[in-house]
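Notebook p. 47: complex prediction with calcium ion.
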Amino acid sequence: MSNTGATANPTLDPNLKSWAPGANDEGTEFPIQNLPWCVFARKADAHIGRHTHEDGSVHEHSHINPLFGVAIGTGILDLHMLLEAGELESVFDDEEMNAISHAFEDTCLNSLAELGPAVTSKLRRAASEYLREGGTSGGGGQQARRLRTKVIVPMNEALLLPPMHVGNYTDFYASMHHATNVGAMFRPDNALLPNYKHVPIGYHGRASSLVVSGNDIRRPKGQQSPPEDGSSGPVFGPCKMLDYELEVGAFIGRGNEMGEPIGIADARQYIFGFCLLNDWSARDIQKWEYQPLGPFLAKNFASSISPFVVSLEALEPFRCEGSVRPAGDPEPMAYLNDKTDRASGGFDVTLEVLIATAKMREAKVAPSRVSIGNLKDLYWTFSQFVAHHTVNGCNLQPGDLLGSGTVSGADPASRGCLLELTWDGIDPATKKPKPRKPVQLPGGETRTFLQDGDEVIFRAWCERPGFRRIGFGECRGVILAAK
Ligand code: CA
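Predicted complex, structure tokens below:
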């Protein structure tokens, strides 16, 4: 495991403590070593109104002032306030200061991310130095003390907004276990297609329907396959096989010029950070529509992201081998093959999925874990995604989102969607799929796919001896009945 970055980077020192509330708590997701980026509004300043027209239609209007922040303990450090108080002036030269001030006028982090890791790393370090015990927030007497009381916004007083404006969303398919499990449902003898170990499989998703955690998800309607008994043609109606997909998304910071591929050795420099991603999927719609051009309406009705962008720097101590290729697997082609990426292109991030049904929430029963896996189980790395995506000259842009694809490991308990979790294999006698094995939930409820009122919650964290545990925050969504 490579930890050269970890030991060289003072923001990752496990002994650092912060004066911010909750930052030194054992179980916090946001110790001073994490500092994930976010965009938020102070609820007290936000005005959200609702007006019902005579025809019954509802018009919602809002006046919110998006601010940039980093999560710390039980709150968010308001970077705008820090900037306005002059606390960043000693950190940046005039040119950088101009670029930062300009980026802070944006409503999301794209312009900041576009400045590249040299600048964002300095800003992260400035936030760390301001927040640490005995750090730069201590000087200046009364004025400094006053700033400290205002500059941290408690989470419950903040409205979390989409962190990036996503122009393009690409979804990969990088878990070999997921590809094998899903392939086996359709091709029991030939589960993994022959291209899988050579080419990182992906497709272009839809950016307009990306929502931030906490937004409800409307059950989609659409065409589905004719019934198996052949009693009718294809049917239309609400999706009956609604699923989640547990993924991690990478946001692009700097982009590349069209026609100028990003080499794999440089790819890390182009990733701003990571979020959790729920790529909601309508399996019955997918099954009917996916051939020959791949997923379309089964995937583009909604995808949810967590509001915090965990930086590559914060994840540096948790890097691991890029991919453990089984013996005999082909070497990646040269443009996908890099020594450093092989040694440390992966991330050891524990990923958890929980479900809370409407009944459970009503009875105040805690959400129930349905799977636990790890991001290190991917066959392809995020650097390989970037190199592959651009090898033909395709230009990535600041804020583009690259999804990992459903993360499943070898262990059945780590399967990252219900399609896989409730699959019980093919009956050798009939050569047909066995009935699905439902997931058991508290109170006797079971699920093969999601029902209206179900809430799906993703969580993720990194742990390693000698380093502070860090978390990603949550990615949540409740299923609403079809319209
Ligand atoms: Ca997906």
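Notes: The chain has two domains: 10-161, 169-480. The mean pLDDT is 94.
Next step: compare against the earlier run before touching the bench.
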